[in-house]
From TrEMBL:
Ligand binding (3-methyl-2-oxobutanoate): 52-53, 91, 121
Highest taxon of source: Bacteria
Pfam families recorded: Pantoate_transf
NCBIfam families on file: panB (TIGR00222), PRK00311.1 (NF001452)
Name this polypeptide is given: 3-methyl-2-oxobutanoate hydroxymethyltransferase
Species per Swiss-Prot/TrEMBL record: Seonamhaeicola sediminis
Keywords from the UniProt entry: Cytoplasm, Magnesium, Metal-binding, Methyltransferase, Pantothenate biosynthesis, Transferase
Gene Ontology cellular-component annotations: cytoplasm
Cofactor(s) listed in the protein's UniProt record: Mg(2+)
Encoding gene per record: panB
Cited InterPro entries: Pantoate_hydroxy_MeTrfase, Pyrv/PenolPyrv_kinase-like_dom, Pyrv_kinase-like_dom_sf
Catalysed reaction equations from the record: (6R)-5,10-methylene-5,6,7,8-tetrahydrofolate + 3-methyl-2-oxobutanoate + H2O = 2-dehydropantoate + (6S)-5,6,7,8-tetrahydrofolate
Main EC class the enzyme belongs to: transferase
Length: 272
């Protein structure tokens, strides 16, 4: 065991389930690189998601579909090097798990082996049950993701709220119970009515982490660059901005340009 330094206790899949049981809410944010992950981990965020939203946020794609398994592993390995406490979950990207359970397992193993991550997340309900089983059988913890599943955007055409109809709501509840039974350690619910999210959270003993799923769940997740106000053209109702970094960063960079042009920078103490 190590000496002085570590006062924190590492977050594990087990501690998340214990947090639900004791009523302590779970905080989760995305990160895709070392420097940001270091700040997120140091701030005491419980879970770091290396989301396939990196496809949008890091690479500038319109959707999450183009990001590759190799690219996710690159992001995840950068994040892992920064972490002392948080549990790290990595999204299986589109195309890396849908064709068959063996492929799903191979992809999950690559993430675990090549990045050092602690768990994986994949989107969907009964369609991905066999894949989840395979991955779990290899000892890899799996987080589910129901409701708005961005990898299926072209099936729906919009990012509107999901499961508003009784039939879809029933299917979602069934899928959540199935994910629990299959052995997932937690489930993300994205953009569904708060009352339905509550019903799901009350019906399963594993933690339900919401994004646009209201307050009656066991934790919340946001995309880091959204909550910092860096992605200034994205304003869904569920997003709370804690900073307006887009403006602050623009001002700082404009000042830098001006200082360079005016020869204000570098000054005497900033040279050798
Ligand atoms: N930056 C970012 N933040 C996210 O939360 C996020 C991503 N990217 N990429 C992957 C998915 C896609 N997500 C989304 C995408 C759209 C809405 C949404 O509510 N769209 C509204 C319009 C929002 C607006 O005003 O711009 C819609 O009705 O389509 C929600 C979650 C969540 N994820
Ligand atoms: C929005 C969260 C849940 C996600 O899946 C991502 O960032 O990719
Ligand atoms: Mg995702």
């Amino acid at each position: 065991m190590s000496t002085a330094k570590k006062e924190y206790k590492r977050v594990t899949v087990k501690s998340l389930v214990d947090m639900k049981a004791s009523g302590e809410k779970i905080s989760m944010l995305t990160a895709y690189d070392y420097t940001m992950a270091k700040i997120v981990d140091g701030a005491g965020v419980d879970v770091i998601l290396v989301g396939d939203s990196a496809s949008n946020v890091m690479a500038g794609h319109e959707t999450t579909l183009p990001i590759t398994l190799d690219q996710m592993i690159y992001h995840a390995s950068s994040v892992i090097r920064a972490i002392d406490r948080a549990l790290v979950v990595v999204d299986l990207p589109f195309g890396s798990y849908q064709s068959d359970p063996k492929e799903a397992l191979r992809s999950a193993i690559r993430i675990m082996k090549e990045s050092g991550a602690h768990s994986v997340k994949l989107e969907g309900g009964k369609e991905v049950k066999e894949s989840i089983k395979r991955i779990l059988n290899a000892g890899i913890p799996v987080m589910g993701h129901l409701g708005l599943t961005p990898q299926s955007i072209y099936k729906f055409g919009t990012y509107t709220v999901r499961a508003k109809e009784e039939e879809e709501a029933e299917q979602l509840l069934k899928d959540a119970k199935m994910l629990e039974r299959t052995g997932c350690f937690a489930i993300v619910l994205e953009k569904i009515p708060a009352a339905l999210a509550k019903q799901v959270a009350d019906s399963v003993s594993i933690p339900i982490i919401g994004i646009g799923a209201g307050p009656y769940v066991d934790g919340q997740v946001l995309v880091l660059h959204d909550m910092l106000g860096m992605t200034h053209e994205f304003h869904p109702r569920f997003l709370r901005r804690y900073l307006n970094l887009y403006e602050d960063m623009t001002k700082a960079m404009e000042q830098y340009v001006s200082d360079v042009k005016s020869l204000d920078f570098p000054n005497e103490s900033e040279q050798y």
